[in-house]
Write a structure and sequence with these properties.
The chain has 187 residues and is mainly α. The protein is rod-shaped, with a radius of gyration of 31 Å. 72% of the residues lie in helices and 0% in strands. The protein is built from eleven helices and no strands. The protein starts with a helix and ends with a helix.
Length: 187
Amino acid sequence: MATSKKQASASAKKNGSTVQSMGTADGSLTPAQAQIGCFDKAVKLFSQQRFEDAAAAFRETAKGPAVHVADRARAYLQVCERRTAVTTLEFRTADDHFNYAVERLNVRDIEKARRHLTEALGMQPDGDHILYALALCCGLAGDGTAAYENLKLAIELEPRNRLHARHDADFADVAESFPAVRSLFHS
């Protein structure tokens, strides 16, 4: 026996079930449907790495009536907030500058590394380790003269820096480009 859509709908209402995709009687979305739509929009923004916009949409989604959707929105919101958080670094000592510079040097952010090594050297002018790193930084930046001068000073302050530079893979590239630097390895 075939039933019409009208009969199926009446039967569903009689049994207490409703179809959420239908919306309200006037055709507008239910609060749960609006929440899901907002969540979908937020996820799209998140996948586009527009974290600030996504965070706003996830905040709105978290206010909705569907608990499981609100929970997922809050989880995404935390990720958005971590991604948009601005971390303020404080450099109080020469070692703070030096350690940050070495981290920057390792990812070849030469400009920042050089700036922080210069700051560290200003705070600790006899820091042979700072001069050594600054020599490498200058060499990687293409400044052979500064690389030579800084490595020369680092070796004068601590003669073991000659051996370190000779066996340092990073210095191999610098020495290849700048024979004057290479000459310090064997003096």
